[in-house]
Amino acid sequence: MAGQVVQSSQEGTRDLGPMPAWNLDDLYPGYRSEAVQNDLATASAEATALQQRWQGKLTTATGGQLADAIKSYEALSDTLGRLGSYAGLLYAADTANPDYAKFYGDIQERLTAITTALIFFELELNQIDDAALARALETPALAHYKPWLDDLRREKPYQLEEKLERVFHEKSITSRASWNRLFNETMTALKFEVAGEKEPLALEPTLNLLLSPVETKRRSAAEALAKVFKDNIRLFTLITNTLAKDKEISDRWRGFKDVADSRHLANRVEGPVVDALVDAVRGAYASTSHRYYAMKARWLGKDKLAFWDRNAPLPDQPQRIVTWADAQSIVLDAYAGFAPDMAKIARKFFDGRWIDAPVRDGKSPGAFSHPTVPSSHPYILMNYQGKPRDVMTLAHELGHGVHQVLAAPLGPLLAPTPLTLAETASVFGEMLTFRALLAATKDPKERKALLAQKTEDMINTVVRQVAFYSFERHVHEERRAGELTSERLGEIWMQVQTESLGPAIDLSDGYETFWCYVPHFIHSPFYVYAYAFGDCLVNSLFGLYQDAHPGFVAKYFAMLEAGGSKHHSELLAPFGLDATQRAFWQKGLSVISGMIDELESM
User: Fold this and answer.
1) What are residue 318's phi and psi, to 5 degrees?
2) What is the pLDDT of residue 303?
3) Contact indicator for 297, 305 with CB cutoff of 8 Å
4) I need a labelling partner for 126 at 20 to 30 A (CA). Which of 322, 417, 542, 549 fits?
5) Closest to 550 in 3D by CA, of 569, 571, 570, 576
6) Average pLDDT, stretch 72-99?
7) What is the mean pLDDT of residues 429-446?
8) How far, in Å, CA of 298 to CA of 506, rounded?
9) Pairing of strands 305-306, 505-506
10) How far apart (Å, rounded) are the C-alpha atoms in residues 397 and 350?
11) pLDDT band, residue 345 (cuts 50/70/90)
12) What pLDDT is stored for residue 10 in this prediction?
């Protein structure tokens, strides 16, 4: 049955060569399989047994008993994670399939019901007296879980009593989860009529036309996007208002003061660190994005760039289409040049069909690497269309994948990495690939095009994501006073975009709706600053690598292998880096301004 899941048409992508569609058999042989039902039944029974064995007893348990209890909890987490991952991946590959949508919804409900019985577990662990826990941690088997217990302790001030936690947990299915699903299914079902195209396009191919060398194509795609977004803006406004209110209710009950505090806690990063990052990036708008786009407008012979020209190729840029086989070789060779072991891990994604690459109707837009569970392996989803940027996306997601594989031995509780550090490996993989491509390029025009594209990607990753963060802050802060209209959301969007992109970009009518398709606003509020965090961090790390920092490769692998078991300050200390200082972020931003300097000198 899994074979049916991964089948896809190659129509429209045959010039790119054969591309893999993932094989989910490593998780389950099919969504109707006995293995799925057996794991659901086993998980339900084990959750009940865990509750009966330990509820009301954890606060008086010995170190050895606590270790046994957490091991059982961890094993159950792996089973539940496998079920949830499989349902989510199946659904992402074809959100238009009603059977997969139903299976995804049913699994979410079953997992919520099962895990409701486990809510007591983490709450009771946090009720253990500090001195008693310190004594218990002298037991080696429990000491293994100390980083997880420390993180759990940080959540203690924001936890509610068990009955309220159960209500929040159970109601998530009919609140946040349902609105997320509505957004997904609506967005993947949208069709865009672009002038010159034989039939309406889905979101990903339409967005891809904004990279076309033909200006009329870019404009037609932008106008089609604006029209469809406007036609559906009331629905996306309702979804945004509802989810922002849902978050406000949760934050208020839990005692979070700032709209982004819950994300900072989940990311294990302090608010002042994020503030230092945001202040540094905003302070660099003039020397980065404003300066670059003014230069690009001159290259294109314009006083100002239309918003659909922002990522346009240069006028004399070689139009290279990269086959899937070439993309694979480019990324693996770049990884091997850094560390053969890194390329060895990355190759498993190709050999094992852990990647779903082709564009298909109904497939989720964008790209991601899903870690699934430590007892299995990650899976990567892409919408590969042969652009050089797609090669960078492949390098990015493989960086995530390598990181997830290296951290997996820590187990389900310690392997998951905070978003801020999770983006480090992905952006580092991009940088390795870019530098390898640049070193192999002899044609001055191609070198200029590569530098320009990388500069734009870094602006998109740093400047644009910080602008997204500013947009979210405005939206969530205003939502506390009442609903925002579509017009008000558009005003906020245009305000932050104008500030970040600068006077060389003409944000004309239609662009005010483009906030509505950004999935991070819906799925993971305030996720976006993690990209800027990761990019600036990687710029600093890569500078050390180029300067032959002693033992860099071994230290880098150790950082990835640590997964979520260490705070960012511990992980950066061996490199002599400190993210609390604004100078740290300015150093990363100087890499972007330096690339713009080089482009100006060409």
Assistant:
1) -60, 130
2) 95
3) yes
4) 417
5) 576
6) 96
7) 89
8) 14
9) parallel
10) 13
11) very high
12) 38
449 or 20: which leads in pLDDT: 20
> How far is residue 271's CA from residue 396's CA, in Å, rounded to a whole number?
26
- The answer, yes or no, to whether residue 195 has pLDDT greater than 70, is yes
Domains of the chain: residue spans and CATH: 31-174 (1.20.140.70), 232-318+443-602 (1.10.1370.20)
With tokens 């289409």, the residue in question is 321
Work out the angle at residue 399's Cα, subtended by the Cα atoms of residues 394 and 400, and round it to the nearest 5 degrees: 100
Asked if residues 240 and 521 have their Cβ atoms less than 8 Å apart, the reply is yes
Asked if 84 and 419 touch (Cβ cutoff 8 Å), the reply is: no
Tens of pLDDT, residue by residue over 502-548, are 999 999 999 999 999 999 999 999 999 998 998 899 988 988 998 89
Q: Which residues of 184-195 are buried (b: 16+ CB within 10 A; e: fewer)?
A: beebbebebebe
List residues bridging with 380 in a β-sheet: 355, 369
Q: How far apart are CA 38 and CA 106, in angstroms?
A: 15
Backbone angles phi, psi at 204, to 5 degrees: -60, -50
Both tokens assigned to 119 = 């809510």
pTM (predicted TM-score): 0.86
Q: Provide the pairing of β-strand 505-506 with 368-370.
A: unpaired
In angstroms, the CA 97 to CA 94 distance is 6
CB 537 within 8 A of CB 591: no
Closest among 93, 120, 113, 115 to 174, alpha carbons compared: 113
Per-residue CA distances from 466 to 269, 423, 457 (Å): 16, 15, 14
Is the backbone of residue 367 left (phi > 0), alpha (psi -120 to 50) or beta?
Answer: beta
* Contacts of 353 by beta carbon, 8 Å cutoff, 6+ apart: 6, 20, 21, 22, 23
Query: Which run of H or of E encompasses 520?
Result: helix 519-523
Q: Determine the residue type at 485.
A: T
CA-based angle 387:393:395, to the nearest 5? 115
- The mean of the pLDDT values for the chain is 93
For 366, the token pair is 């964008």
